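Predict the 3D structure for this chain.
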Amino acid sequence: MSGKQILKKFLIWRIKHVNERVFVGALAIVSGIAAGLVAVVIKNSVHFIQEFLKGWFSSETENVLFIFYPIIGITLAVIIVLYLIKQKVGHGIPTVLHSISRTKGEIKRHNMFSSIVTSALTVGFGGSVGLEGPTVATGGAYGSSIGKLFHLKYKQIILLLGCASTGAMAAIFKAPVAAIVFALEVIMLDLTMASLVPLLLASASAVITSYLFMGQNVLYPVVLTHAFRISEIHWFVILGIFTGLLSVYFTKMYMFTARIFKRIKSWIWKLIFGGLVLGILIFLMPSLYGEGYEVINGALGGEYEHLFENTFYYNSQSDFIAIILAFVMILFFKVIATSVTFNAGGVGGIFAPSLFLGSNLGLMFSVVINKFGWSTSHTNFALVGMAGTIAGIIHAPLTAIFLIAEITGGYTLFLPLMIVAAISYATVRIFTSNSVYTKQLAEKGELMTHNADKNMLSMMKIDSMVEKNFLTISENASLGDLVKTISKSSRTIYVVIDDENVLKGIVWLDHVKHIMFKPELYDTTFVKDLMYMPKEIVERNMTVHQVAEMFENSHHFNLPVVENGKYLGFVSRATVFSNYRKKMKHFSND
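Done. Predicted structure below.
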């Protein structure tokens, strides 16, 4: 008996004997376990590579190998992508968001292993990015594949994808509640009773799997020795503004770097340029190497010695000015190192860099305050700083609050976490409405939000709505030719094109009725004298949301569709509305 036959028999048995919600719950557990194992494999792979490459380095001296490690890792990752996988490997969470909005939750199967290998090589050899994004994408690929394997409906596949993504975050940070909030806030899942239970099951099973196979958290357990004092509230307000501005710098620099690398056409030159820039930065500041959790954990303990390890300024760590300069340089260049890693061809995520920036900004802020006579907790400010950058860079203030609360094992810092996350997020929104995750998707109209109308429109495609039963005519044709065309058409719009099918204009029946029955004009009046070019023309690559706005603003019922000026057909207001209603009806069934 073949595998397909066994699966078919199982599905028939399941339909007869197992409730659908129970079955989805069971698959959520499987997805959570798979995501937990993915987290274990990626983390352990990177740990092994890094220990092999630099475990023997002396912390008191610089090492020239830091220059070469990153370019080797990124080269290996790029070669694997180009010559083995032969398909684009996404950077994590944007891959999941794109699959939800454009491919009905389907993530290509190579994502079940490609991100594991490429991100492990990128980060293991020093790429200054995180592993959370690739872990989420890989977990999501498993969730999507499980849903497809058992022939689940679209909404259930999306739910399993979300469960696996939730499980990935929960497994990494041992923070199951924050992971669920992350799924709701970043992955944009809708919270219903039908989705909540599977998310809880996936999150819990992923954490248990991670505890069994990985043990120690990436962030060490933090014991708060200083409670929040209301007298410090103004410092947290200022920190919220600073984390917001740092988040804006991250987003702008990331996009700026992407534009620079787009000008470099050859992937080899991108690799060489990016790899060398990254290698030099890591040689000068080795704390930029990899994810940076050693530095983050040091900051949470109020320590900054890691910033000086393997550097030529190792002996300056007792000088206050040198300490502040080290902080400023690490914050400034971490953003560049992360951006360069991505654009040179490395694979990774931005969650760990966000934590890195926030913890070090918070610690630096506390060090400065203490230097001038005030007494504050370095640990508290490092923790709250992380919440600020997660809220600002990832646009996830609730995730930031609950993640730090779970890491600290309580709600002692809940008020400052809320203040800093809110102020940071509000500061960022002044300058940009989208995060690094969502900016490119939003520009393409592919971003899913909690706005049901926009979601439905983003899932619709222009190609499926183009009507082609409009007759065409040359601009040099006579009125007599036009009358013959009108007699053959069931439409009231006639498309004027040239020999290369380029749209030149349109003719409305209402505009020629008064001369249609004047034979004396048939040979002396031409189509080019009767046509006009509409102001609103739909480009094939436009989103349906943009088209809907064009209908709203123009009050037309039909709009021509072109691609590079060439006529394709028409899209009608009625077709868009009809497709929208069908989508809404389909997704309203929970």
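The chain is about 65% helix and 5% strand.
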